Amino acid sequence: MFCKNCGAEISDDAQFCPKCGASRTGDTKKSNEVVDDNKVQFQLKPKFNWGYKLLGTLGVVLIWVIIIFCYLIESIEELLILFPSIPVIALAIIIIYTAGKLIFEKMQYDDLEYNFYKTKAEYKDGFLNKEEKELKYKYIREVTMTQSIIERIFRIGTIRIFTNASSGGAYNSKHNNMYGKNGLAIHCVENVKEQYQKVKEIIDAGTPED
To answer: Do residues 17 and 3 make contact, with C-beta atoms less than 8 angstroms apart?
Structure first.
């Protein structure tokens, strides 16, 4: 027997042609269709926002200062008498810590990259330890956009991508991933509404229908 589509010889009991995938009636086997998913449809690179990050870092530092002060409140006067330079040293430590943390995070943000393909999204971070994550659109449950009051002041926002295995509630997150979750949290996104719409359109278009 010969294939009606390409003319290749096939066995009498074959349902499809092993060469072109056509059925014995001439229809192409749908399972042989391959989706070209190597081309980036959209790339999202969040930008480090100095004001927003500085405010957040100073907030953490202030909390620690209050905790330490409450712990040493009974002996603070004696310590100042014995070590009058403590306030200067503490201020220097705060400045060095804040500057170092901001510079380190800025270098991390420079290497952040979120690529969206036809059927998947990829997260890449090449700073120090290389980290990559891939999410198939068919496993994505929800895409959200949020702007806190502080984020609105600095005209940025956060895009979160939840999978079927990730929680929809509150969580702690770094500049990129959800700690221990299977989704993504993209912070410091400028023009967040437009970026969110673009990301959602690509994911919706690449999600197979049930």
So the answer is: yes
| Residue 188 near residue 175 (C-beta atoms within 8 A) | yes
> The whole model's pTM is what?
0.71
Helices 86-110 and 50-72: crossing angle in degrees, nearest 10, is 150
CATH for the stretch 112-206: 2.30.29
Average pLDDT, rounded, for the chain: 82
Confidence of residue 74 (pLDDT cuts 50, 70, 90): confident
Q: Domain-by-domain residue ranges, the chain?
A: 1-29, 50-108, 112-206
